[in-house]
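Hi support team,

I've been running sequence recovery on a batch of backbones for a student project. Most finish fine, but this one hangs at about 90% for roughly twenty minutes before it completes. I'm not sure whether the input is malformed or the queue is just slow. I've pasted the C-alpha cells below so you can try to reproduce it. Let me know if you need the job ID as well.

Thanks,
M.K.
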C-alpha cells in the first residue's frame, strides 16, 4: 500500500487534488467525514462530548448540535483543546482501521487521507508522502466568499485561525500550488500521480 497524507488550508484546493487522484485510481478518506462519523448518536465520542460540554450540545433527536458546540468552543478559553482531545483519538482509531482495511483488500492500493488538521492534530500515520495544497490568502478568502457565501471578514478570520502555510510547507514532501488556473492544479496532480506510481513500483520491487 502507498499512503498519502493530503493537507492544506481552508479553500486551498484539497478536494480538487483528491478528486483528481481518485480519477487515477486512488482511494480517498476524508478526515472531516470521519469526524462526523465518530460523533453519531449513541457513540462513545458523543457521550464524552456531552459529559464535557453539557447536554445542551445535543439536539432532542440525539444529534450533535454543531452550532451550539461551536459557540462554546469559540467563546471559552481551552474548549477547543478539550474537544480535540476527545475527537482526534477517535478519528485516528477509525482512520487506522479504514487504512488497514484498504490494504487488506488491495495490498497495492494508493490511499489518499485528506486531513485538514494534519499539522495541528499531529497525525502520525506512516505516510509515504505528505502533499500540501497551497494558495495565496487572498485567493482563499475570495473562494470562501464566492463558494461558501461567507462575508469577507468572516472568510479572513477563518483563514487566519488556521496554522500558517509555512508550518504546513515545513512537513511537505510535495507542494501543489493551487493559486492559478484549475488546469495548472490538475497538471500538478497528474505529475504527482506519475511520481506516486513510480515510487509504488519501486517499493514493490
Amino acid at each position: 500500500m502507498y499512503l498519502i497524507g493530503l493537507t492544506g488550508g481552508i479553500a486551498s484546493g484539497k478536494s480538487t487534488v483528491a478528486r483528481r487522484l481518485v480519477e487515477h485510481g486512488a482511494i480517498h478518506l476524508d478526515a472531516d467525514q470521519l469526524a462526523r462519523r465518530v460523533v453519531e448518536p449513541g457513540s462513545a465520542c458523543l457521550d464524552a462530548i456531552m459529559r464535557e460540554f453539557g447536554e445542551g450540545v445535543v439536539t432532542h433527536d440525539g444529534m450533535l448540535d454543531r452550532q451550539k458546540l461551536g459557540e462554546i468552543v469559540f467563546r471559552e478559553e481551552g474548549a477547543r483543546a478539550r474537544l480535540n482531545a476527545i475527537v482526534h483519538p477517535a478519528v485516528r482509531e477509525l482512520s487506522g482501521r479504514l487504512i488497514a482495511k484498504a490494504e487488506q483488500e488491495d495490498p497495492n492500493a494508493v490511499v489518499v487521507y485528506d486531513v485538514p488538521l494534519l499539522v495541528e492534530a499531529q497525525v502520525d500515520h506512516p505516510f509515504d508522502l505528505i502533499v500540501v495544497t497551497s494558495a495565496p490568502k487572498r485567493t482563499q478568502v475570495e473562494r470562501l466568499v464566492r463558494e461558501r457565501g461567507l462575508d469577507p471578514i468572516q472568510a479572513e478570520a477563518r483563514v487566519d485561525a488556521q496554522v500558517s502555510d509555512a508550518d504546513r510547507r515545513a512537513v511537505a514532501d510535495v507542494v501543489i500550488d493551487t493559486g492559478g488556473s484549475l488546469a495548472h492544479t490538475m497538471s500538478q496532480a497528474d505529475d504527482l500521480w506519475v511520481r506516486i506510481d513510480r515510487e509504488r513500483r519501486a517499493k514493490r520491487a
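--
Follow-up from support: It reproduced on our side and the slowdown came from queue contention, not your input. The chain has a mean pLDDT of 92. No action needed from you.
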